[in-house]
Amino acid sequence: MEKNYQDYALAMKALSDETRLKIFDMLGNGELCACKILEAFNITQSTLSYHMKILCESSLVNARRDGIWMRYSINESKLEVIARFFNKVTKKLKVTKSNNSNETNKQQEGDLNGI
């Protein structure tokens, strides 16, 4: 499976704003109505709509209409894709550190044998 760095970048860019990051964190507790999100911030409804549009376009957040209100929730499948990406990077980093540590140990053993 080819990595889609453009999708990863879009999601990370969506979370690069403090307000959107806070909204995403709030949605971690479950679906929220726009009115509840708006209560937590000192912003206008149009500013909230702007932030929610970016989060939804990144596919990190789902939106659904409920009467006159919009309800938002985290798109768990997209979150899992992003989490797997970071987990793979973390695993590669651990392997690299382990390999570097083993090489350093071998070099130190070689240095001690030469004493």
Could you describe the 3D structure shown?
This protein has 115 residues and is an alpha+beta fold. The protein contains five helices and three strands; from the N terminus they run ααβααββα. It has a three-stranded antiparallel sheet. A hairpin with a 2-residue loop joins strand 2 (61-66) and strand 3 (69-74). The longest helix has 38 residues, at 76-113. The relative contact order is 0.12.
The profile of the biggest β sheet is:
3 strands, antiparallel
Mean pLDDT comes to 89
What overall form do the CA principal axes indicate?
A: elongated
Report, as a whole number of angstroms, the end-to-end distance. 50 Å
Question: How many distinct beta strands?
Answer: 3
* Sheet/helix structural class: alpha+beta
Uncertain regions spanning at least 5 consecutive residues: none
Estimated share of beta-strand residues: 5-15%
Strand order of the largest sheet: 1-3-2
Radius of gyration: 22 Å
Q: Say what oligomer this is.
A: single chain
**Helical residue percent?**
55-70%
Number of helical stretches of at least 4 residues: 5
Order of helices and strands: HHEHHEEH
Map the helices and strands.
Layout: H1 5-14, H2 18-27, E1 32-33, H3 34-39, H4 45-57, E2 61-66, E3 69-74, H5 76-113
Antiparallel strand pairs: 1-3, 2-3
